[in-house]
């Protein structure tokens, strides 16, 4: 896959704090790329530098191998972390206005506006002012304004903040649709579980530094499928005797085995199946949350595992 | 450029579409008239009716009669006499009871508006100048007329009693006082009150539109910061395009408003006959050279000051924080109005010329001076034209400087939420590339 965006050794400091420290990453064309990290990790600063809103102290940013040009602005859709629109404009006016300052022809906006509003169930509000919409509706409206000018690159800062589960589902589907059209999507979040369901590539950052990055599947396999959950009938005390089992944790309905890296999960399955009835046998993938804690050594309190919206 | 045009269109439409724009077009002139022209017009307004006056004469030297006769020279526009002495009561100076009684009668007539006022000429008035005017209110014009006429009457009595050989009338003629007529070089009539008010009106237009639109600009930047749409904006346009687009868009709305006023003003000029403005004066206020300079100064002044307002908007977070910064701006704009009474007397003094060459004062100060001195044709032979042209150049240069500095601060300030930056921080921003 071709590379769309590359960051090379980006640094940015504020007063005393290093917000982003020697960050390099590569975003392939047409993928969904997630920047993941706790609050204050440097996600927003990184995104603002990509958007050329702030200038890096050092390092380079490349779009398709070339430096960032002025008209890059027109080819990108940006949803900032803190949402906001002109409250006194009508939906129709603001959609037109924000697309027009991207240099997108008004005629084409008019063509696609109704179907976008329909998709977000905002069509009835087309002539209403932004201030008459609820917070959630304003979010959806801003999402339209981010996408309607058919950008090559969509950048979404804290994508899931302030969205209810229904709208998260809606927006996920729209993003997958955009991806199919070849659009590159970069988003940041501190909600690991949501990121896991959506992205092809991830980059984990903490305290302004990259912790790890790569294809999601590769990252997961690298951190090993080293635990197994088994639901079964009867006493499973004998499992402790198996070679390769480091630790057994018993729960009311199942047991969890931690394996050493050279353990053979198929042998264990066979052995257990011979002795008793198995209802479920699952090789557990580590969650991004686990990987992050494992690699970055962050205290769990700073991370949001469950996907609760941050305030 | 086309992006800036989109922003200009939005800013213009946002202002012009509002009801407050129409209301402002109508109310602002009324307000300006209300605080400047109206009080003066009322003060100098002639009475429509003959004022009825009574006289109590305790001297019996015919002061009352002579005074009544001297008042016949004053007439109203409709030809009726301005004053009518209804009765003269002669009372013995020692009869205080009669005086008290008569005063009570006249007081009640004054209260009932059947009499405008009455005079009490005390005993030996020609010696002790003791004359009292009793009325519910006093007009400047009537007061000065009564003073003049009574002085003449009393002088006549004093001269009669002295041993001068000349006829009393001829002495009075020899010592008569005159009213100075005021003319500018070239023989044009100068009515200072109208000139002053005319000048103030133009300064007020500059002042009110700059303050008004400047604050709209500042608030909209603060709102963009607070609603965070600023990030979306500058991910699409450069901060300079945003700032310039906003200033130009609101500036065009401002010009639309002033344009409508000028059209109304020219309409009024065509009906000047019925408005009692002398032709010479209105020719100065409505002449093309003056109006061109006025528009030039309005535009540059607007750009200069609104850039400053944009600067304030970019570094503060709330309207309240902004107030501290607005105060000096308001002061520098209103200064010419405060010193107008001095400028009207000394429009060419060193201090006036110097003040009018300081860029932040130039737009309003020059307009005031041009108004007082008078400009008929565009010719550098008239020093004020030369000075005003130099003033335009100075103001444009300093406006460019202000725009350059502001654009450096603006692009950083608009992304700073929360804490207001300190001066050293702002100076540091100016050094960034």
Structure description:
The complex is a heterodimer of chains A (311) and B (433). By secondary structure, chain A is an alpha/beta fold. Chain A has 2 domains: 3-221, Rossmann fold (3-Layer(aba) Sandwich); 226-284, Alpha-Beta Plaits, CATH 3.30.70. Helices cover 31% and strands 28% of the residues of chain A. Chain A has a 6-stranded mixed sheet with strand order 6-7-8-3-9-10, sandwiched between helices. In chain A, strand 7, helix 5 and strand 8 (184-189) form a beta-alpha-beta unit. The model of chain A is unreliable at 306-311 (pLDDT under 50). Chain B folds into 2 domains: 2-41 and 190-431, no CATH class; 51-179, D-Maltodextrin-Binding Protein, domain 2 (3-Layer(aba) Sandwich), CATH 3.40.190. Chain B has helices spanning 2-16, 19-43, 63-70, 96-111, 125-128, 140-161, 168-174, 192-227, 229-234, 239-270, 279-285, 288-315, 319-338, 340-345, 350-356, 362-373, 383-413, 423-431; strands at 51-57, 83-90, 117-121, 131-135, 183-184, 188-189. In chain B, the strands form 2 sheets. Chain B has a 4-stranded mixed sheet with strand order 2-1-3-4, with helices on both faces. Chain B has a two-stranded antiparallel sheet with strand order 5-6. The longest helix of chain B is centred in the middle third of the chain and has 36 residues, at 192-227. The chains are: A alpha/beta (311), B alpha/beta (433). Chains A and B meet through helix 2 of A and helix 1, helix 8 and helix 9 of B.
Highest CATH level, the class of the largest domain in chain A:
Alpha Beta
- The count of helical stretches of chain A stands at 9
The oligomeric state of the chains shown is heterodimer
State which percent range the strand residues of chain A make up: 25-35%
The rounded distance between the terminal residues' Cα atoms of chain A is 37 Å
Main structural class of chain A = alpha/beta
Question: Main interface pair?
Answer: A-B, 27 and 22 residues
Number of strands of chain A: 14
Can you tell me the CATH superfamily of the largest domain in chain A? P-loop containing nucleotide triphosphate hydrolases
């Amino acid at each position: 896959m071709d590379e769309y965006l590359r960051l090379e050794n980006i640094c940015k400091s504020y007063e005393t704090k290093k917000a982003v420290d020697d960050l390099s990453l590569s975003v392939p064309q047409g993928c969904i790329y997630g920047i993941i990290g706790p609050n204050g990790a440097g996600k927003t600063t990184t995104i603002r530098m990509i958007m050329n809103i702030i200038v890096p102290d050092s390092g380079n940013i490349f779009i398709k191998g070339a430096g960032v040009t002025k008209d890059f602005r027109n080819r990108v859709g940006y949803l900032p972390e803190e949402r906001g629109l002109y409250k006194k404009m009508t939906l129709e006016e603001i959609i037109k206005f924000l697309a027009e300052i991207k240099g997108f022809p008004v005629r084409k906006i008019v063509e696609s506006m109704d179907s976008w509003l329909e998709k977000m169930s905002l069509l009835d509000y087309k002539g209403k002012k932004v201030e008459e919409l609820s917070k959630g509706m304003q979010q959806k409206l801003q999402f339209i304004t981010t996408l309607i000018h058919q950008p090559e690159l969509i950048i979404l800062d804290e994508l899931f903040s302030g969205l209810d589960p229904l709208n998260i589902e809606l927006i996920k589907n729209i993003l997958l649709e955009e991806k199919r059209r070849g659009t590159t999507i970069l988003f940041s979040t501190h909600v690991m579980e949501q990121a896991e369901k959506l992205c092809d590539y991830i980059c984990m950052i903490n305290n302004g530094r990259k912790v790890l990055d790569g294809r999601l599947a590769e990252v997961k396999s690298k951190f090993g499928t080293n635990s197994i959950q088994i639901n079964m009938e009867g006493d499973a005390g004998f499992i402790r005797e198996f070679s390769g089992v480091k630790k057994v944790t018993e729960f009311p309905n199942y047991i969890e085995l931690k394996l050493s890296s050279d353990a053979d999960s198929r042998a264990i399955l066979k052995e257990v199946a011979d002795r008793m009835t198995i209802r479920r046998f699952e090789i557990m993938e580590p969650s991004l949350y686990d990987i992050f804690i494992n690699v970055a050594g962050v205290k769990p309190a700073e991370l949001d595992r469950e996907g609760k919206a941050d305030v | 450029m086309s992006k800036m045009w989109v922003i200009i269109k939005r800013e213009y439409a946002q202002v012009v579409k509002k009801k407050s724009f129409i209301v402002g077009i109508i109310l602002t002139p009324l307000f300006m008239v209300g605080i400047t022209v109206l009080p003066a017009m009322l003060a100098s307004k002639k009475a429509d009716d003959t004022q009825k006056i009574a006289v109590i004469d305790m001297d019996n030297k015919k002061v009352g009669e002579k005074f009544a006769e001297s008042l016949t020279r004053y007439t109203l526009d409709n030809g009726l006499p301005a004053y009518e002495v209804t009765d003269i009561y002669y009372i013995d100076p020692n009869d205080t009871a009669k005086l008290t009684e008569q005063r009570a009668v006249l007081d009640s007539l004054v209260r009932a508006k059947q009499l405008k006022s009455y005079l009490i000429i005390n005993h030996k008035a020609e010696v002790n100048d003791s004359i009292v005017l009793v009325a519910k209110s006093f007009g400047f014009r009537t007061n000065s007329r009564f003073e003049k006429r009574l002085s003449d009457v009393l002088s006549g009595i004093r001269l009669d009693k002295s041993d001068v050989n000349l006829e009393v009338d001829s002495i009075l003629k020899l010592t008569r006082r005159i009213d100075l007529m005021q003319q500018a070089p070239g023989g044009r009539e100068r009515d200072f009150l109208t000139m002053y008010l005319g000048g103030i009106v133009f300064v007020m237009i500059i002042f009110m539109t700059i303050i008004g639109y400047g604050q709209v600009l500042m608030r909209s930047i603060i709102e963009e910061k607070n609603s965070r749409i600023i990030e979306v904006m500058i991910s699409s346009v450069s901060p300079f395009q945003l700032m310039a687009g906003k200033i130009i868009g609101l500036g065009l709305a401002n010009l639309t408003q002033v344009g409508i006023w000028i059209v109304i003003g020219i309409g009024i000029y065509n009906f000047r006959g019925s408005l009692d403005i002398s032709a010479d004066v209105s020719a100065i206020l409505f002449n093309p050279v003056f109006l061109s300079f006025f528009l030039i100064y309005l535009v540059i002044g607007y750009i200069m000051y609104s850039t400053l307002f944009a600067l304030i908007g970019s570094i503060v977070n709330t309207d309240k924080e902004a107030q501290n910064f607005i105060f000096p701006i308001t002061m520098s704009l209103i200064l010419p109005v405060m010193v107008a009474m001095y400028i009207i007397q000394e429009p060419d003094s060193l201090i006036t010329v110097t003040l009018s060459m300081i860029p932040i004062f130039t737009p309003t100060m020059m307009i005031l001076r041009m108004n007082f001195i008078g400009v008929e044709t565009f010719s550098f032979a008239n020093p004020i034209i030369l000075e005003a042209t130099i003033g335009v150049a100075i103001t444009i240069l300093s406006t460019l400087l202000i725009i350059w500095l502001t654009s450096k601060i603006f692009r950083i300030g608009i992304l700073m939420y929360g804490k207001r930056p300190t001066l050293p921080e702002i100076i540091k921003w100016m050094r960034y590339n």
